[in-house]
Amino acid sequence: MSYVTGAHIEWTGSEATPGDYLALLKPRVMSLVVFTALAGLLMAPGPVNPLVGFMSLVLIAVGAGASGALNMWVDSDIDAVMTRTMNRPIPAGKISRAQALAFGLTLSVFSVALLGIVANLAAAALLAFTIFFYVVIYSMWLKRLTPQNIVIGGAAGAFPPMVGYVAASGHVSLASFVLFAIIFLWTPPHFWALALLKSEDYAKAGIPMMPNAKGADRTRLEILLYTLLLVPVAIVPWLIGAASVTYGVIAILAGALMLIAALRVYKLRQGAEADLAAKQLFAFSILYLSLLFAEFIAEHGLGLASGLL
Fold first, then answer.
1. Which helix (H) or strand (E) holds 8?
2. pTM of the entire structure?
C-alpha cells in the first residue's frame, strides 16, 4: 500500500499481482513494437530461420517492455498527479519504484544479451541503444526539458523496424531507415493530437508538452507541418521498390485522409469541434500507421515485394 504526501509517495508494502507487472510493460506499446519490428524482419533479404525470427520478435518485445517499466520508474512522480496515469502500478501503490527498477533492468539485460545470442550482436547493440534512448535521453532528460521532447524522443519508438531488420540480416538498409523515418514523423502529430486534449494534465505535472509550453495554435501548426512531411515519406517504400503499387495506393489515399484530419485540427481552434477534430486525428493516426505496416507485412510475408532491401 501507499499514501501520497505532497509530491512524495510513501510505501508501506506491496500487493503486486502478475497483472500489475504486465501493466508496467505497457502492453499496447509492446504490441506496436512487435508489429513494426515484424515489418523490418520480413523485409530483410534471404530466408530467416522461423525460430530465430520468432525469438527475435519476443526479445524485442521484452526490451520494449523493459523500457516501459523503466519509464514508469522515472515518471512515477508525474504519473501520480496526472489523471491519465494515476492508476498505473507505481502511483496506485501496487509496485514500488525499487521493484519497477529491478524488473526493468533485469528484462533489459535479459533481452539484449539473449538477442545477441539468438540473432547477432548488431541487433543486440541497437536494442540496447533503443532502451537507453527511451529511458535516459527521453524519459530522464528531454521530457522534462523541452516541448520538442516527443520529436527527438520519438526516435526510440521508430527503431523497432531497424532492430527487426538487423536481427534478420546483420546490417541496416535504406528501406529499413525509411520505415524508421515514417514512425519518427508520425509520432508528433499522433501524440500532439492527444496532448491538445490533455494539456492541463501536462501543465499540472510540470511537463513542457507543446500545447502548454508553446500554445495550442503553435501545436496545431506543428501537427500540420509534420503531417506534410510524413505523407510523402510514407510513399517512399513504393518509390524505391521496397513495396508494391498496392502499398503505394494505400499510402496515398490514407495519407490524403491523414492530411485532411490534420488540416481540420489546424483550422478548428476552439470549442467542442476543435476537441473532436483532435480526437479524430489521434484515432485515425493509429489506423493510418496500422494500414501502412499491415500492407507492408502482408506483401513481404507473401514475398510480393522486392527491390532496394
1. strand 8-11
2. 0.89
